Amino acid sequence: MLIASVASKNNAIHSCADGDWTKLAQVDSGASFTTSLWIAKENAAAPTFTWSGSVACSAVIGFFGDPYAAVEVSVSTSSNATGTGTPHTSPSINTTQDDILAVYFDQTASTGLLNQPSGWTRDAFLGSSTDGGSVSFGHKSVASSGSATGAISAAHSGAGEWVQFQIELRSLLPSGDVAEISKAEAAAWVEPDDGASFSKVSIGAWIDAPNEASFSKVDVAGWLDYVGVASTSRRRQACVVN
Predict the structure, then answer these.
(1) Contact of 237 with 221, CB cutoff 8 Å
(2) With the C-alpha atoms ordered 173, 194, 98, 68, is the resulting torsion angle positive or negative?
């Protein structure tokens, strides 16, 4: 997934004419600083963001990928906070799925070092020559659904307005007692519950399907592991069937 953080030194609404990009949120901090957060799939076209008025501005795009994510990755929940000076903070969010990736973006109108939050990995810290501000972003993994990502408090050596976001990145793989997966591609791992149904699916490495799985027009590159009663139709298996 691509995530863009866009800042301008006004409170004008940010827009993007590129249909690949979706605005997740836009938050004002004070009367003259605003930040918007945008998401897109990894093959999206390069975006152009616009707003009214001629003011200092900056933007950064982060790429977040997971080789074990099934089907697609999307944002499911988020939080944000604003302020002036230090520290920069955002409230914790509760995860909605096992093995998610939590991501933060911290954008400020002023220069100065943005410290790495405790318990998080900072992926980048960048200053902007166009608006005199800076941005930091990073991530952490959370293993269990319903867990708290933890509130962030990051020191900043500069002053000025800031906006900080936390978001959850999770798989769009269906969940529940019965999973139905149709016309999908998974990079590495699919592990649904009993009664899973697969139709026109391409799996890069592993399907671990329990009782009464149904496979139709399924292409598995590496490993198919199922128990109980399995129904197969036009399935191509490149390596191991257990």
Answers:
(1) no
(2) negative
Separation between Cα atoms, residue 30 and residue 51, nearest integer Å: 17
Interval 14-29: pLDDT, tens? 999 899 999 999 999 9
Read off the tokens for 205. 């490495």
Kind of pairing between the strands at 197-203 and 213-220: parallel
Query: What is the residue extent of each domain of the chain?
Result: 2-171, 180-241
What is the four-CA torsion angle of 83, 87, 90, 91, rounded to 10 degrees?
Answer: -120
Pairing mode, if any, of strands 223-226 and 197-203? unpaired
Give the pair of three-digit tokens for residue 62: 């982060």
At 78, list the tokens.
Answer: 């988020």
pLDDT digits (tens, 9 = 90+) for 73-101: 667 789 999 999 999 999 999 998 888 89
